[in-house]
């Protein structure tokens, strides 16, 4: 089902392995050293982190938005490995952190000459600090069973100890002054000549036999070896140390063979040619090549291997890949060929599956990296021009075999090795009662149209989809990341996505909306975003959101409808200057079924945290003005939808000048060990048309005191092996905000030009009155559940940077929050870490004028958050929110979760909602690896109040040697939809939802050795 994408990855792995097997790489490993003040701490961040102890070093494997920061030195990448060597206590030696970055590495720092930076696919460097090293939280994840491939690549990239010394610049020789133009002088940098060392030792305990003679024609020394020999070669760039074992061998050398069998061996320029036969074994790191015969020219870097079999780790793959080829040949330093090549991850004598090509040709085209002006970019670390590699692979007569039977054939594949797929990015098959039988495909346009030099940093895709109940769909997506556009010197990031279908069916949106005719037959969306720095340091952000009808997103892209921001059409120019921000915005409504505001244009100015009166006061402000057109949504055309549709109570057709200016002055104080901040806030708002169509000028003032006090205690005597407690530290913070506010206008009169909720939430609110309260369509919901009421009761008007400046009204309140944390230490001796064992936050608000501000209840907005980390895998949680007046939100949730790496997880929660509607919702999910070969899971949702089954999902996965086969059964009671499906995914680079246990991929075959 994922045929072509799988073939491409196999092709690219073949080509990559050709390079490894033929000793093609030739570049010295090098430590890059941006210098930084060692007294500064080191901060490490990443989305995912694992660590273990390796001798006297602590090893960290980081993945996802990795960042290492020390002072003004910032190192970023998607993946990273850290080797941390902690200094001994009471010594002035700093801690040392060796960092290996991979996948879009970017390092910036400042030296004596000013700012400097380097970008590359990988980077190796060191950080030193006498301060602390702040690492990511890693209390629940076990280290991997075996070190991943990136760990070994990082180790191989590190130089030997003598290479750690920084390069010494040499003085340029004195030259006489010449009065005519000449070639520019070379940089004063000594590039060391590569030194290759060759050593010989015995393979078997019986020793070896050698005959040495000199060729009278060429003067070469020829050595013939038998009875087993081990030839070791050092200094081959990234390949570092290589071992060649064979029963018989012939070596040609222009340097002679004297000293070859000594400990030091022969050191020189590598003028050796080697022929090996008989149980040939090539070793380098974890890579092992078995062959019948092999020839290699060390100095010229070309050679041939016959009947080769290779086991090796590869990038982005946790296990080992097995490559067999009749002939592996290096034609020249940048061109390689393989004949009769086959690749598989199977370790069986006769694999269950393999990908085979008659011929693979690989080229590595090097070019100097230039800037926008065509000038060569210089690596500030080495002083040499940056080199870009374009790695292309072409294979002919490609066949996929499964069970010894060919199942797919493609005559020619040609692609960039760095691109993980080819032509067809993905293909999937589905079947349900809503869309029918579905075939969904995604193609790479650059490869389909044969564009050999695509726009750097871009991706252009096309979707061709078939839905039997709805019709044919077609779409395209253009992604760009750090891409340069014409006439701009700064890169841009964004995308443009379009998809359309001529719909011949009806929408099934669940519940009472299972048969809704579309408002138009030709349906789709155009969605895009663009962001980059422009002139005068302004950041430009542009958005485009065009949708055919009100139900399209909910029907076809429900996840985007529920979680993405609104599909707006707008632009923004923003400039940041210190603590100030200048914004220019414009917006246009193109989807008339949503309530949106058009700005023609809008100006914003922010100033935050400005010290005044010799740092005794702090000033904040936000001023905005613009011409706004608030456009209400159009009612639905379908009578069933219209019967439950209501305009929002603050939805109106208004336009005109809208402006506001909000200011705050704080006076921070320290009083009896607590922090106290008296403050005063004021706001002036003008609307040419309010909710009634009249002009309005509103004044608003708020004054109050914010404060917090912290207390803590430590009891090291509390010990409990059962609960894994090693001492308890209790930390308590009491926070409060007491304020009085007065507004010259009622909130109900103010038009809401800035949105309170997303379009999806507003669509729910339009049906809320009929579905929940049984009100006639068009009658507004009670004021208790109006979103404007919740916004001002939670003091949104007390924020200078509030996105909805219209929210403000009379209010007297005191917000109180008690935040508590119980901490303990967990971990092995010498490796203990402080964790948050129990957290409990409780809060609420007191309303002195309860009748005016809180519907007659003095206390409201009660809330709590509780989390108990029982063990490293088990947690118990609960949270709740409670308003005491009628129709106020009253809900409580309690649950537990347990997670075990590569075993499974269990989640169970109960949510009881009392008001404004009643619901007792039980959610449960389970994933569990039943055995080495079986993995299953289920999920369910049930509402006890109405005895309503909301839906289930059950799956069972067979973990085969070469593939994952999943049987899936789904019930969606809301849509009256029952589905069953079978999913087949190769285990090699599996990435689907059924290839993960507890969010982590099932390890591929070979990750834990021979299975």
Provide a quick synopsis of the model.
With 1011 residues, the protein is mostly beta strands.
SSE inventory with pairings:
Layout: H1 3-21, E1 42-45, E2 48-54, E3 57-70, E4 73-85, E5 95-111, E6 114-129, E7 133-134, H2 149-157, E8 196-202, E9 209-214, E10 221-226, E11 229-234, E12 242-246, E13 248-253, E14 266-268, E15 272-284, E16 287-297, E17 302-313, E18 320-332, E19 335-344, E20 353-368, E21 387-402, E22 405-416, E23 424-432, E24 436-444, H3 445-448, E25 458-467, E26 471-483, E27 492-502, E28 522-533, E29 539-547, H4 552-556, H5 558-563, E30 569-577, E31 580-588, E32 596-612, E33 617-631, H6 639-642, E34 654-666, E35 669-671, E36 674-687, E37 696-720, E38 725-743, H7 759-773, H8 787-793, E39 811-826, E40 833-846, H9 850-853, E41 859-869, E42 874-882, E43 890-900, E44 904-915, E45 919-929, E46 934-943, E47 948-959, E48 963-972, E49 977-986, E50 996-997, E51 1000-1001
Parallel strand pairs: 1-7
Antiparallel strand pairs: 1-3, 2-3, 3-4, 4-5, 5-6, 8-11, 8-14, 9-10, 10-13, 11-12, 12-15, 13-15, 15-16, 16-17, 17-18, 18-19, 19-20, 20-21, 21-22, 23-24, 24-25, 25-26, 26-27, 27-28, 28-29, 29-30, 30-31, 31-32, 32-33, 33-34, 34-36, 35-36, 36-37, 37-38, 38-39, 39-40, 40-41, 41-42, 42-43, 43-44, ...
């Amino acid at each position: 089902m994922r045929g072509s994408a799988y073939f491409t990855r196999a092709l690219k792995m073949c080509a990559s392995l050709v390079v490894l097997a033929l000793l093609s790489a030739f570049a010295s490993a090098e430590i890059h050293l941006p210098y930084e003040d060692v007294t500064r701490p080191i901060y490490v961040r990443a989305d995912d982190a694992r660590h273990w102890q390796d001798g006297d070093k602590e090893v960290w494997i980081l993945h996802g938005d990795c960042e290492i920061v020390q002072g003004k030195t910032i190192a970023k990448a998607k993946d990273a490995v850290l080797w941390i060597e902690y200094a001994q206590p009471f010594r002035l030696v700093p801690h040392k952190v060796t960092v290996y970055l991979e996948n879009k590495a970017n390092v910036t720092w400042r030296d004596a000459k000013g700012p400097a930076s380097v970008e590359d696919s990988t980077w190796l460097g060191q950080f030193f600090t006498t301060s602390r090293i702040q690492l990511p939280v890693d209390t629940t994840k076990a280290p991997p069973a075996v070190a991943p491939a990136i760990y070994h690549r990082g180790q191989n990239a590190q130089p030997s100890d003598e290479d750690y010394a920084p390069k010494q610049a040499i003085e340029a020789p004195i030259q006489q002054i010449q009065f005519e133009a000449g070639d520019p002088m070379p940089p004063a940098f000594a590039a060391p000549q590569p030194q290759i060392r060759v050593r010989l030792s015995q393979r078997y305990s019986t020793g070896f036999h050698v005959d040495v003679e000199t060729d009278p024609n060429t003067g070469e020394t020829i050595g013939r070896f038998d009875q087993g020999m081990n030839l070791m070669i050092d200094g081959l760039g990234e390949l570092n140390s290589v071992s060649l074992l064979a029963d018989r061998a012939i070596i040609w050398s222009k340097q002679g063979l004297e000293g070859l069998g000594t400990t030091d061996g022969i050191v020189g320029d590598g003028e050796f040619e080697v022929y090996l036969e008989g149980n040939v074994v090539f070793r380098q790191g974890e890579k092992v090549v078995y062959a019948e015969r092999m020839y290699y020219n060390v100095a010229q870097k070309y050679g041939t291997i016959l009947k080769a079999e290779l086991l090796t780790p590869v990038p982005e793959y946790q296990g080992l890949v097995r490559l067999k080829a009749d002939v592996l040949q290096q034609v020249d330093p940048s061109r390689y060929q393989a004949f009769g090549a086959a690749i598989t991850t199977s370790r069986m004598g006769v694999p269950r599956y393999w990908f085979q090509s008659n011929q693979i040709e690989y080229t590595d085209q090097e070019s100097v990296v230039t800037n926008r002006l065509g000038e060569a970019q210089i690596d500030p670390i080495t002083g040499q021009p940056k080199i870009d590699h374009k790695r292309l692979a072409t294979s002919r007569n490609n066949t996929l075999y499964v069970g010894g039977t060919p199942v797919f054939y493609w005559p020619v594949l040609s692609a960039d090795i760095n691109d993980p797929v080819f032509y067809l990015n993905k293909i999937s098959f589905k079947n349900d009662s809503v869309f029918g039988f579905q075939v969904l495909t995604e193609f790479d346009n650059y490869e389909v149209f044969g564009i050999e030099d695509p726009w750097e940093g871009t991706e252009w895709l096309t979707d061709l989809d078939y839905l039997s109940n709805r019709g044919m769909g077609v779409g395209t997506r253009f992604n760009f990341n750090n891409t340069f556009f014409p006439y701009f010197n700064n890169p841009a990031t964004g995308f443009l996505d379009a998809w359309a279908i001529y719909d011949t069916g009806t929408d099934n949106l669940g519940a009472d909306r299972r048969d809704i005719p579309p408002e138009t037959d030709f349906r789709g969306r155009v969605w895009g975003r663009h962001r980059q720095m422009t002139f005068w340091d302004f950041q430009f952000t542009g958005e485009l959101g065009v949708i055919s009808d009100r139900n399209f997103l909910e029907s076809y892209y429900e996840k985007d409808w529920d979680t993405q921001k609104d599909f707006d059409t707008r632009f923004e120019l923003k400039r940041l200057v210190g603590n100030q921000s200048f914004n220019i915005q414009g917006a246009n409504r193109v989807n008339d079924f949503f309530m949106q505001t058009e700005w023609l244009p809008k100006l914003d100015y922010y100033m935050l945290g400005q010290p005044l009166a010799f740092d005794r006061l702090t000033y904040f402000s936000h001023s905005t003005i613009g011409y706004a057109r608030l456009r209400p949504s159009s009612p639905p055309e379908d009578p069933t939808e219209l019967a439950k549709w209501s305009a929002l109570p603050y939805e109106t057709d208004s336009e005109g000048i809208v402006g506001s200016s909000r200011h705050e002055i704080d006076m921070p104080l320290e009083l009896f060990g607590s922090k106290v901040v008296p403050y005063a806030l004021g706001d002036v708002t003008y609307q040419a048309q309010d909710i009634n169509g009249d002009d309005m000028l509103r004044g608003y003032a708020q004054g109050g005191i914010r404060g917090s006090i912290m207390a803590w205690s430590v009891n090291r005597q509390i010990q409990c092996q059962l609960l894994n407690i090693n001492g308890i530290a209790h930390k308590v913070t009491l926070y409060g905000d007491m304020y009085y506010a007065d507004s010259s206008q009622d909130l109900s009169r103010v038009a809401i030009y800035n949105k309170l909720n997303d379009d999806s939430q507003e669509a729910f609110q339009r049906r809320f009155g009929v579905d929940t309260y049984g009100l006639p369509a068009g009658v507004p919901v009670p004021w208790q559940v109006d979103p404007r009421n919740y916004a001002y009761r939670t003091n949104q008007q007390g924020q200078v940077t509030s996105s909805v400046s219209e929210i403000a009204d009379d209010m007297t309140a005191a917000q109180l929050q008690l935040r508590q944390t119980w901490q303990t230490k967990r971990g092995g001796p010498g490796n203990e870490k402080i964790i948050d064992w129990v957290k409990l936050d409780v809060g609420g608000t007191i309303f002195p004028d309860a009748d005016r501000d809180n519907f007659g209840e003095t206390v409201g907005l009660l809330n709590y958050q509780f989390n108990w980390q029982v063990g490293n895998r088990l947690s118990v949680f609960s949270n709740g929110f409670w308003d005491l007046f009628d129709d106020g939100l009253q809900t409580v949730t309690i649950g537990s979760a347990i997670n075990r790496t590569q075993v499974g997880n269990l989640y169970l929660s109960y949510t009881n909602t009392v008001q404004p509607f009643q619901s007792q919702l039980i959610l449960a999910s389970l994933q569990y690896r039943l055995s080495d070969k079986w993995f299953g899971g289920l999920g369910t949702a049930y509402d006890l109040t109405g005895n309503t089954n909301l839906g289930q999902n059950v799956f069972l996965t067979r973990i085969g040697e070469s593939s994952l086969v999943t049987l899936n059964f789904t019930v969606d009671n809301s849509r009256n939809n029952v589905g069953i499906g079978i999913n087949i995914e190769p285990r090699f680079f599996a990435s689907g939802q059924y290839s993960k246990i507890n969010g982590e991929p099932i390890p591929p075959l070979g990750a834990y050795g021979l299975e």
